[in-house]
Amino acid sequence: MKAPPSPRVARPVMYQRWSNMTFLHWRYPAETVQALVPPQLTVETFDGTAWVGMTPFLMEDVRAPGLPQLPWVSRFPETNLRTYVRDGRGRSGIWFFSLDAGRLPAMLGGRAGYWLPYHWSDMSVRIDAGHWRYRSRRIWPGPRGARCHAESKVGLVLTERERDGLAHFLTARFRLFSQVAGRTVTAEVEHPPWPLHRAELLELDQTLLSSAGLPDAGHDPLVHASPGVPTRIGMWRPF
Questions:
Q1: Are 94 and 177 in contact (CB under 8 A)?
Q2: 239/204 Cα distance (integer angstroms)
Q3: What is the C-alpha to C-alpha distance for residues 220 and 192, in angstroms, rounded to an integer?
Q4: Distance between CA atoms of 172 and 165, rounded to whole angstroms?
Q5: I need a labelling partner for 192 at 20 to 30 A (CA). Which of 1, 59, 86, 164 fits?
Q6: Contacts of 5 (CB under 8 A, 6+ apart)
Q7: Measured CA distances, 219 to 27, 156, 159, 172 (Å)
Q8: Is there a contact between 102 and 123 (Cβ–Cβ < 8 Å)?
């Protein structure tokens, strides 16, 4: 099954590469998740349930148009907690509950320049052949100490048959939503289809779900992994 096509972002405000990402997804009742997103957005469901994703990865090649990459601030670990929503025009995208970044300038820039709920965390990513290990403990703003320690064992590329509707629902996302000065806004993201791999979760010790106000899901997450994609991110626009 083919992934939905990506939009073309003609005038990006940021270039990034999202590398060595592990996708962890839990099912939730739609009403539980809906209570945590703005009323202008509707939580999307697949097979009757909402999904919440935790995505530890390595942010690389970060730069604004016309500027070079900087060795220290252009590469850092990040972990996002997100769900999937649509607006009143039926456009699908991502709503972030939190984004933890391992660089203070990146966290400040994400909050002040792109109005996303970034947090500064003590983080690391270690890639050892097929084992990807992530460590994250939040510093500021709180809840201080919120953590995500995870290790995944990455396997073979998914077959075409395994690239089903659910895999695309959880990963083929080309729009972000946020709120700026109390107004809900949206931005497009351009990226090629994710090269998805099978993955096994070897370790998970996390409190990001509870820190965001979500209850325990009561089951193990669905796991995918990807070596990553380059992205072009557009400017926020009002609905």
A1: yes
A2: 37
A3: 29
A4: 10
A5: 86
A6: none
A7: 8, 24, 25, 24
A8: yes
Report the sign of the C-alpha dihedral through residues 89, 36, 228, 14, in that order: positive
How big is the CA angle at 237 (ends 232 and 238), to the nearest 5 degrees?
A: 155
Question: If you ran DSSP here, which 8-state letter would residue 185 be given?
Answer: E
pLDDT of residue 40: 95
> For residue 25, how many other CB atoms are within 10 A of its CB?
24
Distance CA 234, CA 189 (A): 6
**Contact assessment for residue 196 and residue 157, using Cβ atoms and an 8 Å cutoff:** yes
Q: Which amino acid is at 59?
A: M
Alpha-carbon span 67 to 203, nearest angstrom: 38
Q: Does the structure show a pLDDT above 80 at 2?
A: no
Q: Could you give the percent of the chain with pLDDT greater than 90? A: 87
Question: To which H or E segment does residue 101 belong?
Answer: strand 92-101
Check pLDDT > 90 for residue 126: yes
Q: Provide the pLDDT confidence category of residue 160 given band limits of 50, 70 and 90.
A: confident
- Is the Cα dihedral 153, 154, 159, 164 positive or negative? positive
Q: Whose CA is closest to 239, among 85, 13, 88, 116?
A: 88
Identity at 163, one-letter amino acid code: R
3-state secondary structure of 177: strand
What 8-state DSSP symbol labels residue 31?
H
Cβ(120)–Cβ(73) below 8 Å: no
Q: pTM here?
A: 0.96
